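Run log // design_07
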């Protein structure tokens, strides 16, 4: 399973990229809004840092296929690595089909059922983004959705759409998604940082330092 970082905060993208663990970035209207910056400027800066897929979403207020297609074409022009993020709706599927036919990569987002993922895949989506954290919030096991989608895609045999596990809240979500068959986990920087930590690692480092100092001094 590969890692994308889920943010529009350039500082966090730089830190994660320096760690050498991410190969892409996902954003959404809420994340862009938090930064209070112009969408195109944020995306251009991200593209200068990470050489991999960058998902940029159509406007949240655009609900018709024609509008999504128009915006998707503009997003795709920003950088060759751009992926157009489209909501899982009937109009979104129409836009996905058209953009895909034009060679534009798409990420169908807000997936909450396996059927939605299958429809998006058949519409030609490059990626589907099931939101496991939001399912967990309503007492539905989100990782089960990841597993169902992975099994359905495997059974079909002719689906190239990749599964991006989204709405990741903690390190165990990452482990569960890797075991369930997700191709990618898109993770906030805070979760990536938590994944590096373990109390026994910290204790081991302290012990090694103490042993070194006992023999060689400071």
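design_07 sequence
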């Amino acid at each position: 399973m590969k890692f994308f970082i889920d943010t529009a905060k350039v500082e966090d993208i730089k830190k994660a990229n320096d760690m050498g663990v991410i190969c892409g970035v996902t954003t959404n209207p809420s994340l862009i809004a938090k930064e209070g910056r112009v969408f195109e400027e944020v995306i251009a800066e991200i593209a200068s840092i990470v050489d991999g897929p960058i998902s940029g979403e159509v406007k949240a207020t655009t609900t018709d296929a024609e509008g999504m297609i128009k915006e998707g074409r503009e997003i795709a022009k920003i950088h060759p690595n751009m992926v157009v993020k489209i909501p899982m709706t009937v109009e979104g599927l129409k836009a996905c089909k058209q953009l895909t036919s034009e060679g534009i990569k798409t990420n169908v987002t807000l997936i909450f059922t396996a059927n939605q993922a299958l429809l998006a895949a058949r519409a030609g989506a490059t990626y589907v983004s099931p939101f496991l954290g939001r399912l967990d919030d309503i007492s539905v096991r989100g990782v089960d959705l990841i597993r169902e989608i992975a099994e359905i895609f495997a059974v079909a045999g002719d689906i190239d759409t990749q599964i991006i596990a989204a709405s990741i809240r903690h390190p165990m979500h990452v482990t569960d998604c890797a075991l369930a068959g997700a191709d990618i986990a898109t993770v906030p920087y805070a979760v990536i940082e938590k994944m590096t930590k373990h109390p026994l690692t910290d204790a081991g480092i302290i012990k090694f330092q103490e042993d070194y100092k006992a023999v060689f001094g400071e």
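The CA atoms of residues 7 and 27 lie 5 Å apart.
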